[in-house]
Design a protein that fits this description.
This protein is α/β, with parallel strands linked by helices. The chain has 7 helices and 10 strands. Helix 3 packs parallel to helix 5 (150-162) and helix 4 (121-134) crosses helix 5. Bound molecules: adenosine-5'-diphosphate and magnesium ion.
Length: 233
């Protein structure tokens, strides 16, 4: 476990300025996540799930304690280094898909590769079409986001997160805007990619439909880890 921990959080506290004082969003979190895990941060709204995902994604840093992602201490990275960590190693999936409306499905997925150096146009095309194949959307490559259903939009977002074959994918409430059928479909797609590519997935969710697929559930309450369970082992 020690060697394969790609996310290692120690005594992490996160406070935000609030009014005249401070609000503690995360309190003394200790957590290790290994390569290939399919894990969820679960808890009610306001429990700190997004705050913790943002720190794992090096979009934010701890107030106290440590967060090492792929061996790099988040709070010691320069702006450029944290952008590089995200662009090469971490994929993001959001509740509202966050597709760029003026670009095609193909271009939305390709965008993730344009943030990296050294890809030829030919290599990008091949990688994008493969990623669209993973999510069953090769026939929508030329469509615009407005022409897609919610489920299709989230599958494009999965392709965009996965096209660079990142070590880690962070998914913040990915099923919150989807119906039951599409919720199952997108999590099954992510589970398949998790198995095939050994990608580590971390979800923030309070959706039972998502939770049933997780290998490990970390329950947050008021910014603290309340309990941890393994399942499906
Ligand atoms: P969750 O994703 O579980 O709903 P969040 O991590 O978004 O919870 O938020 C946890 C708590 O921290 C909430 O009370 C929220 O209002 C607060 N919070 C989150 N981000 C900020 C911020 N940038 N500034 C101030 N308070 C914040
Ligand atoms: Mg949230």
């Amino acid at each position: 476990m020690e060697n394969s921990s790609i996310i290692k959080i120690e005594n992490l506290t996160k406070r935000f300025p609030s009014g005249n004082g401070e609000f503690t969003a995360l309190h003394n979190i200790n957590l290790e996540i290994g390569k290939g895990e399919f894990t969820g941060l679960v808890g009610p709204s306001g429990s700190g799930k997004t705050t913790l995902l943002n720190i794992i994604g090096s979009l934010d840093s701890p107030t106290e304690g440590k967060a090492a992602i792929l061996g790099q201490e988040v709070s010691s990275l320069t702006h450029r280094q944290s952008a590089e960590l995200r662009n090469y190693h971490i994929g993001f999936i959001f509740q509202t898909y966050n597709l760029l409306p003026v670009y095609t499905v193909f271009e939305n997925v390709e965008f993730a590769l344009l943030l990296q150096k050294n890809w030829t146009a030919y290599e990008r095309r091949k990688a994008v079409m493969e990623a669209l194949d993973w999510v069953g959307l090769t026939d929508k490559a030329g469509s615009k986001p407005a022409q897609l259903s919610g489920g299709e939009s989230q599958r494009v977002a999965i392709a965009r997160a996965m096209v660079k074959r990142p070590e880690i994918v962070l998914a913040d409430e990915p099923s919150a805007n989807l119906d039951a059928k599409n919720s199952h479909h997108i999590v099954q797609t992510m589970k398949k990619l998790n198995k095939e590519l050994q990608t580590t997935f971390v979800f923030a969710t309070h959706d039972e439909k998502v939770m049933q697929y997780l290998d490990r559930i970390i329950s947050l309450k008021d910014g603290m880890i309340e309990k941890e369970e393994k399942q499906n082992a």
